TrEMBL record:
Lineage: Archaea, Methanobacteriati, Methanobacteriota, Stenosarchaea group, Methanomicrobia
Positions of the Aldehyde dehydrogenase domain: 13-296
Assigned keywords, A-Z: Amino-acid biosynthesis, Cytoplasm, NADP, Oxidoreductase, Proline biosynthesis
Single GO term (MF): glutamate-5-semialdehyde dehydrogenase activity
Name assigned to this protein: Gamma-glutamyl phosphate reductase
Organism field: Methanohalophilus mahii (strain ATCC 35705 / DSM 5219 / SLP)
Location within or outside the cell: Cytoplasm
Family of this protein: Belongs to the gamma-glutamyl phosphate reductase family.
Amino acid sequence: MTNNTEKKVIPAKDASIKLASINTLLKNRGLEAMAQALEKNKNSIIKANRKDLESAEKLKEQGKISQALVDRLKVTDNKIDGMIAGIRDVMELEDPTGKTLSCLELDEGLELYQVSCPIGLIGVIFESRPDVVPQIMSLCLKSGNATIFKGGSEALNSNRTIFNILKNALEETGDIPAKAFQLMETREEVMDILALDSYIDLLIPRGSNAFVKFIQDNTRIPVLGHADGICHVYVDSEADIEKAIGVCYDSKVQYPAVCNAMETLLVNSDIANRFLPGMIEKFVKAGVEVRLDEKTYTIAENTGIQGLKKASEEDWSTEYNDLILSVKMVDSINEAMYHINRYGSHHTDCIVTENKEKRRIFTELVDSSSVMVNASTRFADGFRYGKGAEVGISTNKIHARGPVGMEGLLIYKYILLGNGDRVSDYAGNNAKQFTHRKLDKQISDII
């Protein structure tokens, strides 16, 4: 364990206690200061990012990183505007802490409240994407959680610049314990973080499937995230072809370097001859490398489309994060759902159909954190889901699932309000009886 890690983690843990009690007004004042600071420092952010991009291009030429990672790394004026908008969206969200989730009368004058509260100290370990820093810092601030950030070395200058701008803005308000937010920068600190289960309450990894799996396999700290983003669109025999072309194209081409982009297209055999030729031609014109199973390859080959490839078994379980798409023909919705549940990553999957019963079956039986009907898989996003921003997308089945906003950064505690009550009064022959009556009361009205 390096001294540098402990010097950051322990003060952050201590500051998390104070941060948990900060009121909404002060939180929003801090968020506004963060937004204004990003606006004032756009040039310095882009300048720092340019250094990272120059280094990343050299690494890409050496085959050490992918084009997808370079794309995620880039910060533009528009991206900074998006960061600012995300922070201000979080300001508009209701403060989720201190809310009464339930109130139960155990007996007259003895009331049990279930109250939302922050998790504590969150560790965020991410690759590329410097916009993760303002996204998660804003959500953690609003939800009262302290945060340790560890970005990838490819974004060192960008992360450092953005983090310092935001942290300085919080310090200048004088309202927020700035030590609640810390930045780690070395590879050694990653392993240190994974071992600090006595201080860090939750880890959120953002990056490649290999990266996330490494985090999951090497820590005792609970991990929120997903290892793969293998997303499907199934075009049913009763699909509207125009809708299907639009949904499929957007799901793959709009931004292919992200986890909610389509990787496999499944097409019902009854519609394949009417749908596939135009769809594949549109993909090829957009620069997509299309990999087809035997049946879809035959259809595409007969149209004279050039540059086609045959899919392998490995393609069905591959997350490309690039302009590459695998295509398979299926004979029924049941075959489509079987393929998705077998090869998918339970992230985001879509059906395009006009049949109401098939919509119901698909949404009930596809075991994914987001299921789309006649809509692009790219909608699976915290901002688009109205969460202001997201801390990540989780395929877990406990705690939080899908695009996770502030609700994934909360837990609850029980508060029992009594008046000298004793358990011994509820034991023995003349014991008092519990009423266990639900009450419509708020803890904020009592204490």
